[in-house]
Write a structure and sequence with these properties.
By secondary structure, the protein is mainly beta. The longest helix has 19 residues. The chain has three helices and 22 strands.
């Protein structure tokens, strides 16, 4: 009897440890897996990790099952090899506090799309190499895209680049990507610049952010209220976006310059936004999942 009781107690203890082992501390950050989602929180830089191989320790979440990743506000970087060969997740949300993505952070991983927040300024070499990405959104604050950053991303069909001036990049950044069949969306006023820029000119370049986006990319109407607004308004998410991950709402001025970008939570029907605008006028709001978009006008008064 005592032996059975001890075995039962051990089994219970093992189950408790197993539950709590799906989380912990890594450097200054915390991580946990909750509802099939890896959540990384805290304040500061993520550690750099070695590749998973015999005798080395990969990122602590590498061998767990999760389908989504949320990096919360306060995290300031995504470490080397952080999601190396983590092919179990398909969606990721990155808070607007992350400034740097270090080398091989997403190598051989499988997210469908990634929207990089405005805070990101640095993308290291090979960050997304051999990644399953079909769509990536680059903010206009990026000042460095390292060599081979998107090398062998063979599923890539859409790059949304908010930078009005083409960034000088090495020819191997998009090596082994069929760039001629990949749509590169840029501010309408910058199309001619990108068509002359090395590397970028090899893409199928399209405009976004003002009226001709509707003609070239087929965006549909976005419902926004109250409109006109003094600063706060709401958008109604289209039915086909209700369960989408990786949604971003971008606000542009009449020249196509990106003024504000907001990540939209998954599963909500309405999203409240507070406009950070300096002047009264008419602005363009664009809700996108990287492949399809809805557009609307905001009258700011």
């Amino acid at each position: 009897m005592k032996k059975k009781i001890l075995l039962l107690a051990f089994a219970i203890l093992f189950n408790i440890v197993s539950v709590f082992s799906q989380g912990g501390i890594t450097g200054p950050l915390n991580w946990k897996i909750e509802n099939d989602t890896l959540i990384i929180s805290g304040e500061g830089e993520m550690l750099n990790y070695p590749p998973p191989m015999p005798g080395s320790w990969p990122s602590p979440w590498h061998d767990f099952e999760f389908s989504a990743v949320v990096i919360e506000y306060g995290v300031t970087s995504i470490g080397e090899m952080a999601f190396y060969a983590c092919r179990q997740f398909s969606s990721i949300k990155i808070a607007n506090s992350v400034t740097k993505l270090w080398s091989n952070a997403f190598t051989n991983s499988n997210p469908d799309s990634i929207v990089l927040p405005n805070s990101v300024t640095f993308i290291d070499e090979a960050t997304f190499s051999v990644c399953g990405l079909s769509s990536v959104t680059l903010p206009d604050n990026v000042t460095n895209i390292g060599q081979g950053a998107f090398i062998a991303c063979k599923n890539l069909t859409s790059v949304i680049n908010h930078n009005p001036v083409p960034l000088s990049i090495d020819p191997n950044v998009f090596e082994d990507v069929n760039v001629s069949a990949c749509n590169l969306y840029v501010p309408a006023a910058s199309v001619s610049l990108y068509k002359e820029a090395p590397v970028w000119k090899e893409f199928n370049i399209l405009a976004f952010g003002i009226e001709d986006y509707e003609d070239e990319a087929g965006s549909e109407q976005l419902v926004i209220y109250p409109n006109p607004t003094a600063g706060s308004c709401k958008i109604i998410l289209p039915q086909d976006f209700l369960h989408e991950s990786g949604l971003s709402l971008s606000v542009y001025d009449i020249s196509g310059k990106l003024l504000q970008q907001i990540n939209i939570d998954n599963g909500i029907e309405e999203a409240g936004i507070k406009l950070n605008l300096d002047a009264k006028g008419i602005y363009t709001a664009l809700l996108s999942n990287g492949k399809k978009s809805y557009k609307g006008k905001i009258v700011f008064e």
